[in-house]
Amino acid sequence: MRLYTRSGDKGKTSIIGGRRDKDHIRVEAYGTCDELNAFVAKAAAGLDESIFSDIQPELIKIQHELFDCGSDLANVKSDAAYKVNAEMITFLEERIDVYIKEAPELERFILPGGSKEAADLHICRTITRRAERTTAALMKEEEINNEVFKYLNRLSDYFFAAARVANHRLHVKDVEYERSAIVFRSKKKKND
């Protein structure tokens, strides 16, 4: 197999069911999912298996699902058989709920970082947000699998929750944004 094809030398690329300019918003959307996938691999590789025996395999699962997102975003066939589905989104929601309960409550905005592990997960979160913005722009121009957009929206929340848990498990405090007012009220204070 030859790695190069020369078919993209004039600024176009093949997608499922057609061709697009390499700078087309659809190509940008699935390309950003590919970029995110590489950063998820980096985040997973940096986790200690004994501390993150739950998060590390979840990140590998997410890598496969990001490939599914890219495949769906690259598909322009009228009879497309999409891969991303509601069950994937439900799984993320369930894991977010678990991690939110484990991490300490937030009162203020936090900066990305704390531990290296959390910083890597925050990078994944911000790239997910870019993928989400690009996919939103694509949705205005062409039809897509809407489950991909929902998945990306939930995935950024997953990375935020996982980053906070990473700091918590490593006994590293989240870095509060120093000019933040109290923006999140604890459930205990609401009930008082």
Automatic annotation (TrEMBL):
Domain Cobalamin adenosyltransferase-like: 3-166
Family the UniProt entry places it in: Belongs to the Cob(I)alamin adenosyltransferase family.
One GO biological process term: cobalamin biosynthetic process
EC identifiers of the protein: 2.5.1.17
Organism: Alteribacillus persepolensis
Stored NCBIfam families: PduO_Nterm
Subunit field text: Homotrimer.
Pathway stated in the Swiss-Prot or TrEMBL entry: Cofactor biosynthesis; adenosylcobalamin biosynthesis; adenosylcobalamin from cob(II)yrinate a,c-diamide: step 2/7
Protein name according to UniProt: Corrinoid adenosyltransferase
Enzyme class, spelled out: transferase
Family annotation (InterPro entries): CblAdoTrfase-like, CblAdoTrfase-like_sf, PduO-typ
UniProt keywords, alphabetically: ATP-binding, Cobalamin biosynthesis, Nucleotide-binding, Transferase
Record PANTHER family: CORRINOID ADENOSYLTRANSFERASE, CORRINOID ADENOSYLTRANSFERASE MMAB
Reaction(s) catalysed by this chain's protein: 2 cob(II)alamin + reduced [electron-transfer flavoprotein] + 2 ATP = 2 adenosylcob(III)alamin + 2 triphosphate + oxidized [electron-transfer flavoprotein] + 3 H(+); 2 cob(II)yrinate a,c diamide + reduced [electron-transfer flavoprotein] + 2 ATP = 2 adenosylcob(III)yrinate a,c-diamide + 2 triphosphate + oxidized [electron-transfer flavoprotein] + 3 H(+)
GO molecular function terms listed in the Swiss-Prot or TrEMBL record: ATP binding; corrinoid adenosyltransferase activity
